Amino acid sequence: MNRFLFRALRDNEIRKHELSYLFWECTTRCNLSCRHCGSDCTVVSREKDMPLEDFLAAVDTIPQAQKPRIVVLTGGEPLLRPDIEQVGQALRQRGIQWGMVSNGWFYDEQMHGRLMAAGLGALTVSLDGLQESHDWMRGRPGSFQRALRVISVMSADPRLTSDVVTCVNRRNLAELPEIWAMLEAMGVRQWRLFTIIPIGRAAKDPDMRLESGELKKLMDFIAEKRREKGPMKVTFSCEAFVGPYEEKVRDYRFFCHAGINIASILIDGRICACPNIDRDAFSQGSIYTDNFWEVWQTRFLPFRDREWARRDGQCAGCKHWRDCLGGGMHNWHDGRLLECHFAKL
Question: What would the DSSP string read from start to end of 250-312?
């Protein structure tokens, strides 16, 4: 698409500010210890799981005609909640589809049947390398085999919208062709790849971050697989403007929807956009003190007008500003842009 036409379409979406996706950080407990975790989740979390009735009270502030298209449960590991089926049923009763992001450890055919009966409509599972690399990344032996199990189950069910995501790092970059062949053979319909920003546990781990030449290899790999037009769609995530690779690695040009069409309710009740965003800097209120729908309608201004990002040295005067708008919001922490993908390409 012509970039000028895309700018007009993007600006119209910003003006409309319609809520399409709502993430719920329903727990910060996790059974794994991932090297790249941005939330530093543990088995015993500092925060208690948010009660379902508190979340539903926030959802019920949204007029029926303007309910989000889908609520996505994230964490932590959502399947550590004992009431996960009740969550799904309550959302379906409100006419809202629901999905989940899971590490797959607890997901088997029996769990699949129970969740589908509760109305599960979408599932995202991570596969972060071949066996040694994935288990190293996830911090628990056996994680790779558990991930393959859930990928097999979900890919075989045509009722479910499902995809596999891979956090590309210096250790698994060379494994991507073999991972691609394995996933395609398993019938995976979509494979999304993304890079890791230096926050949480990844902040001091150099193995997590791609250097310039490595990022270019990732872009070339995705572009090649998309040209082949195989049965499995391969895409780069919507994390950053990638200049010469725009529309070669995605179906569309870069557009960070955080705070434009996407909101989240965090574990402590704060209202934000994507859960990976700097919550101290960009939270817009709390479901415990504010009306969620009023917050969505009247706040989120830092997301809807990104001119503030031009004060950063990397963005000031950049000729690609109108196409990038400072990149993905999750890349801004402590008032600065942590990674500029375009600069590496």
Answer: SSS-----BTTTEEEE-TTSEEESSTTS-HHHH--EETTTS-HHHHHHH--HHHH-GGGGGGS
